[in-house]
Automatic annotation (TrEMBL), chain A:
Domain of life according to the entry: Bacteria
Keyword Membrane found: yes
Entry-linked InterPro entries: DUF1468
Domain DUF1468: 13-172
Name by which UniProt lists this protein: Tripartite tricarboxylate transporter TctB family protein
Membrane spanning residue stretches: 12-30, 42-64, 95-110, 116-134, 141-163
Keyword Transmembrane among record annotations: yes
Annotated keywords: Membrane, Transmembrane, Transmembrane helix
Lineage: Bacteria, Pseudomonadati, Pseudomonadota, Gammaproteobacteria, Oceanospirillales
From TrEMBL, chain B:
Boundaries of every DUF112 domain copy: 23-441
Source organism: Marinobacterium mangrovicola
Name of this protein: Putative tricarboxylic transport membrane protein
Name of a matching Pfam family: TctA
Transmembrane feature ranges: 26-52, 64-87, 108-135, 141-162, 174-194, 206-227, 321-342, 357-377, 398-428, 434-451, 472-491
Coiled-coil positions: none
UniProt keywords, alphabetically: Membrane, Transmembrane, Transmembrane helix
InterPro entries hit by this protein: DUF112_TM
Lineage of producing organism: Bacteria, Pseudomonadati, Pseudomonadota, Gammaproteobacteria, Oceanospirillales
Length: 172, 518
């Protein structure tokens, strides 16, 4: 029931997003140059297919939202979602932690630090945080830090060596 | 092409692979594929997409060989975790877990893995036979294709893929397809060289790279899903015999043959892929079986059908790749991108410019089949150890590969940002039950659809009639619209009542529950 409610509510919103996106694409495509000066006929303009796709996306988004609205008591579905509890759940904590670590590694460390150090730090952080702070089992702090540090350094060096020297790939 | 010519080229293809470096490539790439397929969360598409970036500096044929080995190995490897953990290693093995895991719980884990190995091998061989038979024929037919037919082929591919990969909610499949087509509109279009939706970013003028997009949608999105979920269940160990008895394989020869054909046909349908092949074969086997009651409770026949079906999809998916440059599955979409990177032009002209390549691909598939059989029957118990690698240690490594991979091809951080965008967008869309395969197919087919619609209209002076009146166009157009109409409940009801009124209705056949996600 909860999953069903979640889908019904999300369909309403994502349908509206696609409706808006479709209309924006249609409008942008409509305003693309028609290239008449180059003798391009109206049926070969660059915006033709994006216009059609924008219209199709808007229609599908509208149908998705409409289906959601017609599927019953939306307010009741909203209430059954328990959104604050959803954000406090362990699943959400794990997801946001992984996302934050991945983004920090890619946007903050890669390119600024030597690749092997950035990679070692990222690997250490993921293993340590997921095995110590958000693990179902209790592990000792010293053991977790040591293992994560060793594994981080090994991964950092091994990946850099394999890619750079083994596959002759340039690293960021 | 004469049969003898085909055989000679196949012989050349096999000879071409009989070098030490090629045999070594087969050995490591297949083993890597099996390991990736075994690990829940690492899919065949992800494995092939990441490997493309590593094989960038290899000779073209060796790179394609390693990618095919990875593809076949990963689809086969998925059966291990399906049997031992009840978690399919790849979506292709979801049907395998229905009978494979009950067999493992009965103490027959080794035998189930052995049966899965022989079924996968035979399924691939059936598919290879169909590939050798059908690809030259389809290639000749493709010469009659003009802009009108290619436009409909692209539209048909996206629509049918959207419908089949999201059977319970075709609307979401169509939206995924449209999103993919829209992504393909980004960058310079080929008829008037106009830059669309680039937002003054020079990096977007060449369009969105398929490899970064797929690494994101199938790699990063999968990492987020795996790390969010709770820990996996217990691995069942295997102590029984692994090599299947000949009588068990021979008893289900009809099922094997039927599943092989179904898998190959599903593979030919653009973008649909191995999981549908597996489910379709499983459902057909259950309908035709004399032991229906055993299905879902450890049926050898069910396991055989699922594994034969998903493996036969691989050669089937290569048929449209080689003859039309249209992917039969998401992994095949990456293969097309890899072929272009290595200056191999798939499509109707392949059989004229490089006819031996088809037979090289057949030889590659044959060798990989031998490799999975050898690994599967000899290293089953050893390979189980891979399943004990904790996800906390594995996933950061996979993410690092997701970062390095897209960067390796173009040496631009922009492609890494594209990967992140597609990863987050892909994760959200998956959570909302939008299938991924139509997006990939849309990205691949977008240019084909756009260019051929406008080129066709230019050829006919703006008259759309040839799109509907030429024989092949007419058929593709009719099937495309029929697929869309059959997604509308009101139309479906009308058709059902029409069939009922003329006495053609029959009781619905109960099929296994199938997840709508790819």
């Amino acid at each position: 029931m909860k999953n069903n409610s979640r889908l019904i509510v999300s369909d309403l919103f994502i349908g509206a997003v696609f409706l808006a996106l479709g209309l924006i694409v249609f409008y942008s495509a409509w305003n693309m140059p028609r290239l008449e000066t180059r003798g391009v006929p109206g049926y070969a303009i660059p915006g033709l297919v994006p216009m059609i796709l924008g219209a199709c996306l808007a229609l599908c988004g509208f149908l998705l939202s409409l289906r959601s609205i017609r599927s019953g008591d939306l307010a009741a579905h909203f209430r059954s979602l328990e959104i604050p509890a959803l954000f406090r759940s362990n699943e959400m904590r794990r997801l946001l932690t992984m996302l934050a670590l991945a983004l920090f590694y890619t946007l903050g460390m890669v390119g600024r630090l030597p690749f092997w150090i950035a990679t070692a730090l990222f690997t250490f952080a993921v293993i340590f945080i997921f095995e110590y702070f958000i693990s179902d089992k209790q592990h000792g702090l010293a053991r977790c830090v040591t293992l994560a540090a060793v594994e981080g350094v090994l991964v950092g060096i091994a990946i850099t060596w394999i890619f750079q020297d083994g596959f002759l790939v340039r690293l960021p | 092409m004469l049969f003898s010519e085909g055989l000679a080229m196949l012989g050349d293809g096999i000879g071409h692979l009989m070098t030490l470096s090629n045999l070594f490539t087969i050995a490591w790439a297949t083993l890597l594929g099996i390991i990736i397929g075994m690990l829940p969360g690492l899919t065949a598409t992800m494995g092939v997409a990441l490997l493309v970036t590593l094989t960038y500096n290899m000779p073209g044929d060796q790179a394609i060989l390693s990618l095919i080995c990875m593809y076949v190995g990963a689809i086969y490897g998925g059966s291990r975790s399906a049997i031992l953990l009840n978690i399919p290693g790849t979506p292709a093995s979801a049907a395998t877990s229905l009978d494979g895991h009950p067999l493992a719980k009965k103490g027959l884990a080794g035998y189930a893995m052995g049966l899965a190995t022989t079924s996968s091998a035979i399924g691939t061989v059936v598919g290879i036979f169909c590939l050798a038979l059908l690809a030259p024929m389809l290639s000749e037919l493709a010469f009659d294709f003009g802009s009108y037919e290619f436009f409909w082929l692209a539209a048909f591919g996206v629509v049918i893929c959207g419908k089949l990969t999201s059977p319970t909610d075709a609307l979401k499949g169509y939206i995924s397809g449209i999103l993919g087509l829209l992504v393909a509109m980004i960058g310079m279009e080929s008829l008037q060289a106009y830059q669309r939706f680039t937002f003054d970013m020079p990096e977007l003028s060449g369009g969105v790279g398929i490899i970064p997009a797929m690494v994101g949608a199938f790699g990063f999105a999968e990492i987020l899903t795996v790390m969010r979920n709770r820990k996996d269940s217990q691995v069942i160990t295997s102590k029984d015999r692994v090599i299947p008895r000949f009588v068990d394989v021979w008893r289900y020869r009809r099922t094997i043959f039927r599943s092989g054909i179904i898998g190959t046909l599903v593979g030919i349908i653009p973008g649909v892929g191995e999981d549908i092949g597996s489910w379709a074969s499983y459902a057909a086997a259950r309908r035709a079986s004399k032991e229906k009651e055993k299905f879902g409770d450890g049926s050898y026949e069910g396991l055989t059908a699922a594994e034969t079906g998903n493996s036969a999809v691989i050669p089937g998916a290569m048929i449209p790749v080689l003859t039309l440059a249209i992917p039969g599955s998401t992994s095949a979409a990456v293969l097309i991108a890899a072929m272009f990177i290595h200056d191999i032009q798939p499509g109707p002209t392949l059989m004229i410019q490089n006819p031996s390549f088809l037979y090289q691909v057949i030889a590659m598939l044959l060798f990989t089949t031998l490799a999975i059989t050898a690994y599967g029957l000899s290293m089953s118990k050893l390979l189980i150890k891979v399943l004990s690698i904790p996800r906390e240690k594995l996933m950061p490594i996979v993410y690092i590969l997701c970062v390095v991979g897209p960067f390796a091809i173009t040496q631009r951080m922009f492609d890494v940002y594209v990967m992140i965008f597609f990863g987050i967008a892909g994760f959200i869309l998956r959570e909302l039950k939008f299938p991924m395969a139509p997006i990939v197919l849309g990205i691949i087919l977008g240019t084909l659809l756009d260019t051929n619609l406008r080129r066709g209209l230019m050829l006919s002076g703006g008259d759309p009639a040839p799109f509907f009146t030429r024989p092949i166009s007419m058929v593709l157009c009719a099937v495309t619209f029929l697929a869309i109409l059959l997604s509308i409940p009101l139309f479906r009801k009308m058709v059902a009542s029409l069939f009922a009124s003329i006495g053609l209705s029959r009781a619905p056949v109960k099929t296994a529950d199938k997840p709508s996600q790819l």
